[in-house]
Amino acid sequence: MLKTIGIIGGMGPAATADLMLKIIEMTDAQSDQEHIPMLIDSNTRIPDRTQAILHGGEDPVPEMLLSAKKLEAGGADFIIIPCNTAHYFIGELEKEVSIKFLNMPVETAGLIKARGVKCAAVLATDGTCQSGLYDRVLRANGIEPIYPYPDQQALIMSVIYDYIKKGITDPSELPCSEMQRIRDDLEDRGAEALLLACTELPLAFRIMDLYDDSCVDPTEVLAAAAVREAGATLRPGIRY
After folding, report:
1. How much is the pLDDT for 114?
2. First vs last Cα of the chain: how many Å apart?
3. What is 87-138 written as a DSSP string?
4. What fold characterizes domain 5-102+220-229?
5. C-alpha distance from residue 71 to each of 5, 14, 77, 79, 112 (Å)
6. Fewest CB atoms within 10 A around its CB: which of 80, 102, 144, 204?
7. Domain ranges of the chain
8. Domain 105-217 belongs to what architecture?
């Protein structure tokens, strides 16, 4: 029998839907009954994680914990979180919930190592970058992280907060050429992979037609890990 996946969502809602769709698309299923059962709490009340980490904003842990306990009580066998920055707080959740959490940064760093990458650019929120969330797991796997310059980081934050989180998805309205210059610069600085370490960024890169084989989508990595943890089989050709 397949395990039930619990998803703490709402950070943001589009990223939550993206993760669920990826799990469905990655599962080698021929009928409804062969797909993985999922419980999703799209808790949009969870305070902003970057504000909490860097600017003394409201603590997101109480709301995240409410979601986790709701999923646990509902019958989830393990929990996943489609928000990279939220993993800064995962240790606090693990102390209060008895079921397993899959850790998206850890899973992602393991995949990058398996691909032989030695240098990866981290594109993420200020909270993820400045907290060292990916720095630790990448270096532990022998991978050198590099980051956008401050002006580049400001644009990345704008793409996340001023466009994707606000539902602006028309490519003509997004700063496509500016983002292309950022990725070109990171590759010139030695990046062998672009780690899109905010769940809004893979959505943005696909909208702007910037997504290619050098991009690593942690949402896809987490989806594949969840399929395996649930006891299902990945569709043929899935590279995770």
Report:
1. 95
2. 23
3. GGGHHHHHTT-SSEE--HHHHHHHHHHHTT-SEEEEE--HHHHHHTHHHHHH
4. Rossmann fold (3.40.50)
5. 9, 20, 9, 8, 30
6. 144
7. 5-102+220-229, 105-217
8. 3-Layer(aba) Sandwich (3.40)
CA 194 from centre of chain: 13
Helix, strand, coil content of the chain in percent (nearest 5): 50, 15, 35
Asked whether the bond before 6 is cis by omega within 30 degrees of 0, the reply is no
The yes-or-no verdict on residue 238 having pLDDT over 90 is no
Assess whether the region 5-102+220-229 and the region 105-217 belong to the same CATH fold: yes
Active-site residue set: 83, 198
- Say if CB 60 and CB 89 are below 8 A apart: yes
Would you state the structure tokens that stand for residue 104, as one six-digit string? 């998206």
Query: Cα-flanking dihedrals φ and ψ of residue 125, to 5°?
Result: -70, 165
Q: What pLDDT digit, counting tens, does each position of 159-189 carry? A: 999 999 999 999 999 999 999 999 999 999 9
> Shortest CA distance to 223 belongs to which of 64, 4, 26?
26
